[in-house]
Design a protein that fits this description.
mainly alpha, Receptor-associated Protein, 13 helices, extended
């Protein structure tokens, strides 16, 4: 099918742009050095480790649920499929073992040009986006892994748009060359929009994880401070009470408390350990708790116990207020589907009546 002079000009421009993007991506890929491979491999190792921890937690939860069933029901449940958590975890452990041995075939090649851009253009590491990502990564992954995870996400944000736009331009050019100008133009518009949306989604997903984590920590805080208050007022020293509380559950705030306990066991000063706890949790409740502990380390259990009790009472009051706010938000979100359902019911009732009146 002849595409006409305008179509040929459009095809030439699109092919030229696609070629430019592909050449840029290939040049960047050719400039990948050993350090870039190591950073990418370490990022992959951390991703696998996080996935292994999630699978292990799911496996423990499943075992805990199944252990509560006895008799024939328990036997039948044990014979049911497990979901393959152990098998998936073992595959990831094997992949991490290969990464540790320098076998980097599991590394995502498509993100490597992003590491090159970060290495060759120092301004990328000084911008507001970099600072925002670093802050969130510090909160999610801790000081030890924040730099690596920041570089990994920035590499994806820089590299994926290049290859995504290049593929979009090639697909659009193929359709236009085949005579489908309308379809080719649509692919160009939709593909470019999807590439931009994907980049924004990667960045927004990090912010969403941080918000969800803060919300989870705020929900769990009343239980934590209540346990601390009970243990301290019963005569247990704060270090021991903190450790007992930290190992009493598996959720976010308890894991952060364990990290603080590990730092204290490794002779990190209490001020520094609890300061890191404040930075990692980054909520007003945990900041108030850690600050109170730091200020009252030398005052004994009596003073700290009273503070814990007051804090627990305030935390449960705030928890009730939060539950009310969440209920109000849920009601407002349910309003639209409720109205749509009501509209559908009205249509179902009115259509037969209208048909009777018109004699259909």
């Amino acid at each position: 099918m002849c595409i006409g002079r305008e179509g040929e000009d459009m095809l030439i421009v699109i092919m030229a742009l696609a070629t430019i993007f592909i050449v840029i991506w290939l040049i960047l890929l050719s400039r990948v050095n050993k350090d870039d491979w190591i950073l990418a491999g370490y990022g992959k190792f951390l991703d696998n480790t996080a996935q292994i921890e999630k699978l292990s937690a799911k496996e423990k939860d499943r075992e805990a649920r199944h252990s509560s069933y006895k008799g024939i029901v328990g036997v039948c449940i044990k014979l049911m499929p497990t979901g393959g958590f152990s098998k998936k975890a073992n595959k990831l452990r094997h992949a991490n073992m290969l990464l540790g041995q320098g076998v980097l075939r599991s590394v995502n090649v498509f993100e490597l040009p992003g590491y090159v851009l970060q290495r060759e253009f120092e301004a990328i590491g000084k911008g507001g986006i970099h600072k925002s990502i670093m802050t969130n990564c510090y909160e999610l992954y801790g000081k030890k892994y924040a730099v690596c995870k920041t570089k990994q996400l920035l590499a994806r944000l820089l590299s994926y748009p290049i290859i995504g736009v290049a593929i979009t331009l090639l697909l659009g050019a193929l359709l236009i060359g085949a005579g489908s100008i309308t379809a080719g133009t649509a692919i160009l518009a939709i593909g470019s929009a999807l590439a931009l949306v994907m980049v924004y989604a990667l960045y927004d997903d990090l912010n969403d994880k941080v918000k969800k984590r803060r919300a989870a920590i705020s929900r769990q805080f009343p239980n934590v401070v209540s346990k601390l208050a009970l243990l301290v007022t019963s005569g247990m020293i704060m270090d021991r009470a903190w450790k007992e509380t930290a190992y009493s559950a598996q959720s976010e705030i308890y894991l952060e408390m364990r990290k603080t306990m590990d730092e204290l066991d490794n002779l990190v000063s209490p001020e520094a350990a609890f300061g890191n706890f404040i930075s990692r949790c980054n909520t007003k409740e945990t900041s108030k708790l850690a600050s109170a502990i730091i200020q009252n380390l030398s005052k004994g259990n009596a003073e700290v116990g009273r503070l814990m009790k007051d804090m627990a009472r305030e935390a449960w009051q705030e928890r009730r207020h939060m539950a009310k706010r969440d209920a109000e938000k849920a009601n407002s979100k349910l309003m639209i589907p409720t109205m749509l359902l009501l509209l559908a019911i009205l249509v179902m009732l009115m259509v037969p009546v209208a048909m009777n009146f018109t004699g259909i």
